[in-house]
Every structure is written in structure tokens, then in C-alpha cells.
Amino acid sequence: MRLLVIEDEAPMRTALVETLKAEGYRVLAAEDGISGLELACTEPFDLALLDVMMPGLDGFALCRELRKRGKTMPVLMLTAKGQVDDRVEGLDSGADDYLVKPFSLRELLARVRALLRRKEREHALGNELSIGDAVIDFGRNMLHRNHKDQPISSKEAGMLRLLASHPGETVSREKFLDVVWGYNAYPSTRTVDNFIAALRTKLEKDPSKPVHLITVRGVGYRLEP
């Protein structure tokens, strides 16, 4: 697995690179957002770790630019800023997870492993998923139904991928927040319910009587393709 570390503080950058290499990863590093962006766009990586507070091009802007250029590798943001608004901005910019400094190296490695496992599961699912009379194209984040294309957000796509990777199983609201949002950035699991409601309007013939996105009371949701 090839990992990219973009961190402007030399001691932290060195510690991250050495720790990840000790775990068997192949690691390249950049000392600022601009050189990190150039490296990310010229070589393939399985995951990127981005510091938020960098001169020139900060982590938020860098992540948005990576997504804009079609780079889909998981992104783990590292920052000393721990407020909810900062976490939300990081996730909304396209990051998959968020780790607040100071953090333990054990937790960092656990987050990296989780993101890489998630990437492997998504790859195994392929780029298309059929649910009833709808076809979801994950490559374009598009849902095709009734001879029409409807865009779906990256969060909606992530929720459908998660449900599809657990066929016949109930996925808890907390699991959605942990895997799709990467970090519980919102104060209430009601966020998940709102996204499910939006997906039902796109997937179900009668959203008030869903047959595909099934509610499991008190727990979460189950997919019936």
C-alpha cells in the first residue's frame, strides 16, 4: 500500500513516515500543500494523510482540489483544531476521517487500517449497484431510475455502499457516522435519518412505504435490493 503524508512540521512528518514505514507501508511525504498536491496528482496512492494548518494551501483547500481533480483515495485529516465546525468543514471538503492532535500512534494506525479496509470493500462491490428498478453508478455518483439520472452526494453513495457491503444485516446509525462521515461530527444520529429519507425519495416507489431501505427500529437500517 502506498501512502502520502503532507505535513509542514518536520518532527511530525518524520514521526508519521517512520511509524507508517514500520508497519510495512510504502510512504512518500511532502512538506506543504502545493508540493503535496503535485505529488498526489502525478503518482498513485492508496491513502493520503493531510495536515490542516499549512501555509500556502491548507488541508481543506488541498482536499477540495484533490476531489475536484478526480482523486478518490481516502483522506485522513490531521489537525490541532477540534471544534465541531472544523470537523464538519474537513469532512465536507471531501475528507474521509479526521484525527485531532495530539493523538496516539496506535489510534492513527487503526484509522489508516479502517480506511484501507473500507476502500477494499468498495472496490469489491464494483462501480454499479442495482436496487429495485434503480441502478447506482458509483463512478459518477449518479442514480438512474425511470429513464432519468439523478445525482447523489458522496455521503449518500457511501451509505449505499455500506449497506450493500452488509447484505441482509442491520447497519446502526452509529456505524453510518463512523464509516461514512469518518468521525461523529454531528451531535445527533438524526443526520443519518435525514439522509435515508432523502435516498428513499430517489429509490422507493412510495417513500412512505419503503421496500428497499428498511428501518430497524431502535437500531438502524437494512438494505433489501
Folded structure, characterized:
- This protein has 225 residues and is an alpha/beta fold.
- The chain folds into 2 domains: 2-124, Response regulator (Rossmann fold), CATH 3.40.50.2300; 126-223, Orthogonal Bundle (Arc Repressor Mutant, subunit A).
- It is 43% helix and 23% strand.
- The chain is built from 8 helices and 12 strands.
- The strands form 3 sheets. It has a 5-stranded parallel beta sheet with strand order 2-1-3-4-5, with helices on both faces. Strands 6-7-8-9 form a 4-stranded antiparallel beta sheet, with helices on one face. Strands 10-12-11 form a 3-stranded antiparallel beta sheet.
- The protein is elongated.
- The model has no long low-confidence stretch (mean pLDDT 87).
- One of its GO terms (molecular function) is phosphorelay response regulator activity.
Average per-residue pLDDT, rounded, comes to: 87
CATH class of the largest domain: Alpha Beta
Q: What is the CATH topology classification name of the largest domain? A: Rossmann fold
The helix fraction, in percent, is: 40-55%
How would you sum up the major sheet?
Answer: 5 strands, parallel
With strands numbered from the N-terminus, the spatial order across the biggest sheet is 2-1-3-4-5
* CATH homologous superfamily identity of the largest domain: Response regulator
- What is the CATH architecture descriptor of the largest domain? 3-Layer(aba) Sandwich
| Order of helical and strand elements | EHEHEHEHEHEEEEHEHHEE
Q: Tell me the fraction of residues in β-strands, as a range.
A: 15-25%
Instruction: Identify low-pLDDT runs.
Output: none
Count structural domains: 2
Distance between the termini: 33 Å
Overall number of strands: 12
Query: For the CA atoms, what is the radius of gyration?
Result: 18 Å
Structural class determined from secondary elements: alpha/beta
Number of helices: 8
Given the C-alpha coordinates, what overall shape results?
A: elongated
Protein name: Response regulator transcription factor
Keywords: DNA-binding, Phosphoprotein, Transcription, Transcription regulation, Two-component regulatory system
Pfam families: Response_reg, Trans_reg_C
GO molecular function: phosphorelay response regulator activity; transcription cis-regulatory region binding
